[in-house]
Amino acid sequence: MAGKHMVITIGRQYGSGGAETGRILAELLGICCYDKNILKINSDASGIRESYFHLADEKAGNRLLYRIMKNLTPEEGAPSFGPDLMSADNLFRFQSEVIRKLAAEESCVFIGRCADYVLDHYDVLLRVHVIGSWAERVSRIREKTAGSEADAEKAIRRMDRERGEYYRYYTGRDWADAQNYDLVISTDRIGPAGAARVILEYLRSLGFDLDKEFPSNKIEQCR
User: Fold this and answer.
1) How far, in Å, CA of 85 to CA of 200, rounded?
2) Which of 82, 163, 207, 213 counts the most CB atoms within 10 A of its CB?
3) Averaged over 175-201, what is the pLDDT?
4) Greater model confidence, 43 or 124
């Protein structure tokens, strides 16, 4: 597969360590990982304040129930600079345009943001979903936030619901359906670093010579 760069998208349950998996993987491959840092790129590309992208980040638009009932997804296409400039749907179109542009330029990792759907017809795309058991996720969130068990459980339920609704709203698909992904990995026994290594082995099984395709071993700065 020499000559073609690889784009990896990572969906993740909250508390599964999916974002960390993506960062470790990107560092091992020497490529960029785009997570919340993509919001600034969205802002630079659109001229819209970054705070508006944060407000809409991985949250469904206001008409979720209507669209689910009608089996609709927001219109795709170029973003608008018209009256709907600040709408959640238009911000998503700006973000999708940025994702497609980055994917066309370089090998990279995208965390969440429906990147697997946005790049659905991309030639060399690996779609990963990272999961974990409830107990492990609660433990990871408690360690991260120093909060109570009840607070961690509440946060997991809220974030999983928001991510699922966001994915359903913009793609019409079930976020938790394993058929939407090429690889589903649990971090329970192996952790994020182990999950990153599993992805590397999967890439090798697809015929990628990683030493040749990704000769660098560290990226100093991404955008």
Assistant:
1) 40
2) 163
3) 96
4) 124
The sign of the torsion formed by the CA atoms of 65, 53, 156, 185 equals positive
Q: What are residue 186's DSSP bridge partners?
A: 131
Query: Burial of 172 by CB count in 10 Å (0-12 exposed, 13-18 middle, 19+ buried)?
Result: middle
pTM: 0.83
Sheet holding 108-111, edge to edge: 32-34, 108-111, 7-12, 125-131, 183-186
In the predicted model, is pLDDT for residue 75 greater than 90?
no
Return the ∠ at Cα 116 (arms to 107 and 2), rounded to 5°.
30
Q: What is the Cβ-side half-sphere exposure of residue 222, based on CA atoms within 13 angstroms? A: 24
> Read out DSSP for 35-53?
STHHHHHHHHHH---HHHH
Letter string b/e over residues 52-77, b meaning 16 or more CB atoms within 10 A of that residue's CB: bbeebbbebbeeeeebeeeeebbeee
